[in-house]
């Protein structure tokens, strides 16, 4: 008797068990398979009815192939399903952001499975086309032994467990493209709109906003003094940006911003750790250590700072991070000045100077941009008026010099040269332009008039003229609304009050806005209102009709109103 080695014995047992399992599972698991006995009986009955056909012994011999064919069909279906699973994983491998090693492993398992499926499919066709039963039996026996060994190799390769692992791995969220509407709102400084648009982002399932969009949303929260929520959003985004190569430009600004928020929020240890990483990365990219992250890191070194000083600096930093030039103007710069006055020898001085200069530069840029828009609007209106009137618009007459100044010139006594406060002049100009942008015309004119007889007078005059014109137009519009209401009113007393209110608005416009260029139009409007008032007064003073014992006598000529009242100015 031949003695088998342990390795041969184990392998033989595995092959035998696999073959038996394949045969039994093929017969038992598929309810659609035909029972061999029933199939044989049906074929024999059909041949007896037809009186001919294949011999009974041949039919009986071919029935022995049914278990093998059933097993082959079962394996083909099972491998087709597994191959489809691998194809799904292969399709999602880029989305899953798998490393190259795992993607290569997927290709190996899929290729191995394709080879096995091809062998089973080829054997199935050969057995179906073979006409001799003995040859088919021999082919099935030899081929199945070889294919069973390939089945075992596939099972031992670990591909099945790897497939289960890939299926159970949750797919990471796919980043959407940067939202252009949010970017446009952010660039315009409309942070409320950024927050509203972000809440309504149309995202598909398992899709996340673009890193750039989320970064802009976090900044918008910070600008609205929502520091805690901004820190949470940016803190969650930071690890994702670290992993994504395409968002490397956002990494340093985001790390620095998170560190600044931690510093302002008194999380000093976390801020120090973040600044150290930012400084290291910045130096690797060619930056200098004395730039902002280095200054902040130096400010966080222990010792030499009182708690009150640290608290004041944190408040300044928080307002600087939320700085919005349209809303805050020079508020941060003024707060920085107060800090420098209170702590002139502080080690925070370089940092405070940076925040002061930067915030002031942003405020001036915003004011200059607004002034440019106002000047462009004024130019467009003047061009329209030139086209409408066919001639140039009358220039604004400069105010006459004061009597005191004239006397000084006549006697030859030059006034003493005043000390020019450039900062105060610039502040008056900035505030005046801001009031004009906010449609606060009276405040704009009052602030800009302070610049008369200064170096800023030529720069302020166009804004004064524009504020005067816009203020007069606004007054005329309100006066026209009251006039229309008066002409539509049937109550004489109410009509009189509305007309008087309209007249007061127009008279006030003549007084407050002498440089509007609308004096002639306002005078014509006033004349129309006066005519309406006379008509109302005449109607009130006319005798009432007699109900009995006489006839109504109309007023004498010249005491009543001539013509029908107009309905607009």
Structure described in brief:
The protein is mainly alpha-helical. Helix content is 72%, strand content 1%.
Descriptive account of the structure:
- The chain has 569 residues and is mostly helical.
- It has helices at residues 6-29, 36-50, 56-62, 66-92, 100-129, 133-156, 159-168, 180-187, 191-199, 211-223, 227-243, 248-264, 268-284, 292-299, 307-321, 325-328, 331-342, 349-389, 403-411, 422-437, 441-448, 457-488, 492-512, 519-541, and strands at residues 174-175, 207-208.
- A two-stranded parallel sheet has the order 1-2.
- 26% of the residues are buried.
- Residues 1-37, 393-418 and 543-567 have low confidence and may be disordered.
Key features of this structure:
disordered C terminus; disordered N terminus; mainly alpha; two-stranded parallel sheet; single chain; 569 residues; 72% helix
Strand order of the largest sheet: 1-2
| N→C terminal distance | 127 Å
Give the low-confidence spans: 1-37, 393-418, 543-567
Report the major sheet. 2 strands, parallel
What percent of residues adopt helix (DSSP H or I)? Answer: over 70%
The rough form would be described as elongated
């Amino acid at each position: 008797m031949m003695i088998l080695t342990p390795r041969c014995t184990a392998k033989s047992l595995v092959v035998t068990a696999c073959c038996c399992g394949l045969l039994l599972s093929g017969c038992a698991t598929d309810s659609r398979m035909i029972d061999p006995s029933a199939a044989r009986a049906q074929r024999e009955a059909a041949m007896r009815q037809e009186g001919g056909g294949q011999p009974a012994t041949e039919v009986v011999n071919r029935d022995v192939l049914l278990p093998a064919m059933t097993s082959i069909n079962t394996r083909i279906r099972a491998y087709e399903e597994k191959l489809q699973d691998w194809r799904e994983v292969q399709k999602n491998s880029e989305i899953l952001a798998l490393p190259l090693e795992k993607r290569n492993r997927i290709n190996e398992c899929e290729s191995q499975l394709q080879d096995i499926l091809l062998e089973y499919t080829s054997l199935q066709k050969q057995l179906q086309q073979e006409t001799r039963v003995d040859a088919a039996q021999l082919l099935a026996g030899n081929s199945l032994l070889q294919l069973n060994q390939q089945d075992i190799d596939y099972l031992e390769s670990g591909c099945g467990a790897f497939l289960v692992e890939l299926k159970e791995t949750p797919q990471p969220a796919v980043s959407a493209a940067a939202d252009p509407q949010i970017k446009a709102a952010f660039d315009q400084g409309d942070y409320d709109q950024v927050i509203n648009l972000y809440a309504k982002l149309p995202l598909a399932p398992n899709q996340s906003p673009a890193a750039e969009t989320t970064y802009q949303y976090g900044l918008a929260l910070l600008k609205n003094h929502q520091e805690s929520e901004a820190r949470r959003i940016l803190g969650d985004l930071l690890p994702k940006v670290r992993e994504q190569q395409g968002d490397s430009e956002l990494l340093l600004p985001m790390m620095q911003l998170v560190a600044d928020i931690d510093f302002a929020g008194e999380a000093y240890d976390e801020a120090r750790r973040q600044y150290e990483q930012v400084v290291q990365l910045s130096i690797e990219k060619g930056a200098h250590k004395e730039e902002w992250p280095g200054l902040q890191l130096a400010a966080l070194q222990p010792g030499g700072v009182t708690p009150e000083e640290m608290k004041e600096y944190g408040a300044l930093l928080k307002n600087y991070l939320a700085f919005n030039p349209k809303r805050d103007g020079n508020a941060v710069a003024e707060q920085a000045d107060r800090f420098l006055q209170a702590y002139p020898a502080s080690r925070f001085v370089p940092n405070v100077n940076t925040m002061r200069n930067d915030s002031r530069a942003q405020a001036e840029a915003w004011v200059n941009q607004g002034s440019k828009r106002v000047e462009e609007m004024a130019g467009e209106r003047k061009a329209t008026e030139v086209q409408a009137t066919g001639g140039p618009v009358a220039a604004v007459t400069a105010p006459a010099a004061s009597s005191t100044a004239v006397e000084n010139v006549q006697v030859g006594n030059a006034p003493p040269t005043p000390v020019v406060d450039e900062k105060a002049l610039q502040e008056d100009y900035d505030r005046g332009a801001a009031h004009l942008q906010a449609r606060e015309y009276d405040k704009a004119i009052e602030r800009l008039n302070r610049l008369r007889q200064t170096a800023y007078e030529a720069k302020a005059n166009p804004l004064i003229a524009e504020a005067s014109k816009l203020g007069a137009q606004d007054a005329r519009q309100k006066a026209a609304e009251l006039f229309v209401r008066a002409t539509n009113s049937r109550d004489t007393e109410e009509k009189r009050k509305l007309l008087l209110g309209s007249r007061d608005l127009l008279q006030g416009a003549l007084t407050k806005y002498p440089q509007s260029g609308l004096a002639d139009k306002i005078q014509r409007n006033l004349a129309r209102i006066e005519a309406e008032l006379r008509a109302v007064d005449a109607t009130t003073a006319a005798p009432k009709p007699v109900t009995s014992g006489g006839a109504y006598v109309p007023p004498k000529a010249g005491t009543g109103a001539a013509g029908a009242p107009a309905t607009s100015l």
